[in-house]
Amino acid sequence: MVSKIVDSIDEAVADIPSGATVMIGGFGRAGQPVELIDGLIRHGARDLTIVNNNAGNGEVGLALLIKGGYVRKMICSFPRQVDSHIFDEAYRAGKIELELVPQGNLAERIRAAGAGIGGFFTPTGYGTLLAEGKESRIIDDRGYVFESPLHAEFALIKAYKADRWGNLVYRKTARNFGPIMATAAVTTIAQVGQIVPLGTLDAEHVVTPGIFVNRVVQTPNEANA
Amino acid sequence: MVSKIVDSIDEAVADIPSGATVMIGGFGRAGQPVELIDGLIRHGARDLTIVNNNAGNGEVGLALLIKGGYVRKMICSFPRQVDSHIFDEAYRAGKIELELVPQGNLAERIRAAGAGIGGFFTPTGYGTLLAEGKESRIIDDRGYVFESPLHAEFALIKAYKADRWGNLVYRKTARNFGPIMATAAVTTIAQVGQIVPLGTLDAEHVVTPGIFVNRVVQTPNEANA
Amino acid sequence: MTTGSRESTPATSAPLTRTDMAQRVAADIPAGAYVNLGIGLPTSIANFLTLDQEVILHTENGMLGMGPEAHGAEIDLDLMNAGKISVTELAGASYFHHSDSFGMMRGGHLDIAVLGAFQVSVNGDLANWHTGVPGSIPAVGGAMDLAVGAKKIFVMMELTTKSGQSKLVESLSYPVTGLRCVTRIYTEVATFDLVPDTGISVTKLFGSATVASLRELTALPIIDATHQTSRQTPTEG
Amino acid sequence: MTTGSRESTPATSAPLTRTDMAQRVAADIPAGAYVNLGIGLPTSIANFLTLDQEVILHTENGMLGMGPEAHGAEIDLDLMNAGKISVTELAGASYFHHSDSFGMMRGGHLDIAVLGAFQVSVNGDLANWHTGVPGSIPAVGGAMDLAVGAKKIFVMMELTTKSGQSKLVESLSYPVTGLRCVTRIYTEVATFDLVPDTGISVTKLFGSATVASLRELTALPIIDATHQTSRQTPTEG
Question: Residue B80: its chain D contacts at CB < 8 A?
């Protein structure tokens, strides 16, 4: 019987090696897999390259991972926020690298990795600092920049419900990067609020088919999720 | 009050001009907007370029459009089927052009048009007859072919339910090309079995957000839809 | 359009407040339009959209049909806008993932995006993501995607910097966000339209601003279109 | 692996029927694998997958978790496989649109695709979409996407054409579907593994076929791996 359910957060992240590229879902705190990140901190893998839209908020989740010194490089679109002081300090101290990618190019690069696309031309960023050194092309009188797929060894995402095949549904804007990161990583680990019997999720409503999910771990239900 | 609902099939297709590129949803008969195609035949626009996975089945829908001589060119992946005699005859008689595209490249080209991508490198078709004359590139030791976005003036699609904002849900494998064609056309016209009040479709379950849909027309309910 | 030097009379007696500006932008948004309101000043436009307008708001973190800010028991940690403020969901809303959301933007499906700006050039180049100050931490978010994607880009900004420099310029000195993308600029003293191959025109004046004073401030050949205003923006508030 | 010239004894007394072949492929598919069964001969493999295996079938027209062929009242015109045959839905199924479905294929997420073939070359090139006959109407469908996408490509075919020519060849004479993609070939007389940089080996023999007779038929330097079979395919049926 296929079952992707693992018993604990620690078991779920146990084989993430130092030096890995790890995608972490979430936009701000919505959809951020905080328990998996805490597990990753306990696990202790270092020199990680982290792909996330932001670079941590406050003193929780991704911010703590950075604070602990586990992150060598951030690939993100928006590191600077009112409560991103942990990243800010690490960056100013030269302790962390930053690859800044426009948010839509970040999403499309992740999607391209999952969909087997070798690269694509995007109008976003054309003529800007963020296109410097990149191939560009005029197509139908419009400028485009070439962007490459962004792969990862692991993706840590948060969903609302899962079944034992790893089918996932999300909740509201916590969906954000989860579905595309699930497609782009060799191993995708989803923390979910609820595990339901196979067949409970309507086939029309599944957002991430289980083919993209390798491990599912249940976390305590939150007030709003 | 926003309402994309139009009263009749004939009204829905009335402004499709001769020479237009029209995407038509469906994989075989599932999801084929037969009533809209019948309306297009009554309307009489000629010299159409039609984008569909197939090239018509039996003597219904797209097959009749071809039989009537309205189609100048088919862009599709799989024209030859057991019951595609109408296309076969037109093709052998030199009455219709054929652009053959591998099914996944067809889908990705449509998706690229809707998502503002200027072109992309796909491994599909590399080294084959269907890549002849196309730009190719080796990326990370693998061969890729450059494919361009496929835009259309109109898309005719079939969905299961809609609301007045044009939000759509589909049914089973009748979903197929509908969601991506809706994004790639200047004007998307959806025939649906049922129009429901705004707010009835769960925001988590909407497959095609109304932003991609310009007109919705209700057709008589079918036994299975 | 007239390009003469005739002085226009100011349309109102005082420069607009930020609230006035938001109200004016809101009134110019056509009923049923799909709109993204950028983080910061533009977000406040939502407060002045009427139910009748049924404007459908997009937020790039994956939602169409975003409702007003959430308060008290309405607050749901899974439902926020791109500025990470808790919001609500309207009937007719839909959720989608980031690739679909940015495909929607990049693919030209949004009617209007209203953005803040550090600078706008006369040919519509936009600078709003990076001050270029050495040592500052860069952050771009969805700014470049919105700039290239929406059918119309409205900018909402004060016309001058704190030190009195015009933010409407011949060419950008700040790092560019997007090229030739801005179509209209709302400021506290005037509203401008930017038309490719035609140039920049002023369509409304507020406070003591005149076409001449704006030409002097910006050093740009601004066309006076204040008399066409009533035909151009029939829904003015 | 041995590369010697020792003769292997045939494993069974008769060549496999198509049903036998389907049964053998089905038995070799690991439990829980994500699999696409090509149109034609491979479709029949579904009949021999066991419930215990819980193999999850993909159909490129937008579904995972496809069940057996539908009959009678089960038939739903909105639910068909890529061969346009009515099928059923299993618990755990999901639907998605064509771009997502082919992204799943192209992105390397399927474990196995089982395809028919006109020809396979010794280095794994596949020809299965076009006979190359002048005047024939070409149709490609999802064949090229499956060829480049699945982690493993199994081919299921008769070893020879009606006129007795080997379909396993040094290099293709038919138009190519995908390069260096085939990993295993099931035929009525033998099963072959193709390993990059190692070459082609025969792992099972049926009927009167011998390694020598296959070498003669194909004119290929086939490696004899029939004695490793029990370790290589522990689930053989």
Answer: 137-139
Q: Which of D7, D60, D89, D158 is the catalytic position?
A: D60
CB contact under 8 A, B207 and D97: yes
Radius of gyration of chain A from its Cα atoms, rounded to whole angstroms: 18
pLDDT category at D196 given cuts 50, 70, 90 is confident
With contact defined as beta carbons under 8 Å apart, do A112 and A145 qualify?
no
Distances (CA, A) of C232 to C9, C191, D122: 18, 12, 70
Kindly report, residue by residue over A91-101, the tens digit of the pLDDT: 999 999 999 99
Q: What is the DSSP string of B29-60?
A: TBT--HHHHHHHHHHT--SEEEE-SSS--TTS
- Chains touching chain A through at least 3 C-beta pairs below 8 angstroms are B, C, D
ipTM value, please give it: 0.95
Q: In Å, how far are B59, D100, D173 from D194, measured between CA atoms? A: 45, 30, 19
Is D74 a catalytic site residue?
no
pLDDT at D25 over 50: yes
Q: What is the DSSP string of A170-195?
A: --GGG-TTHHHHHHHEEEEEEEEEEE
**Res D236: pLDDT:** 37
Query: Which amino acid is located at D27 in the chain?
Result: A
Judge contact between B74 and B95, C-beta under 8 A.
no
Stretch 195-224 of chain B: residues touching chain D, C-beta under 8 Å:
207, 222-224
Confidence of residue B221 (pLDDT cuts 50, 70, 90): low
Helix extents (H) in chain D: 18-28, 98-106, 143-149, 211-218, 229-232
Among the partner-chain residues D80, D138, D143, the one whose CB lies closest to the CB of B30 is D80
By CA distance, what is B202's nearest residue in A?
A: A205
Q: Which CATH superfamily is domain D18-188 in?
A: Glutaconate Coenzyme A-transferase (3.40.1080.10)
Q: What is the pLDDT of residues B58-82, one digit of tens each?
A: 999 999 999 999 999 999 999 988 8
Domain limits of chain D? 1-16+194-230, 18-188
Can you list the domains of chain B with their CATH numbers? 9-119+151-220 (3.40.1080.10)
Contact predicate C114/C92, CB 8 Å: no
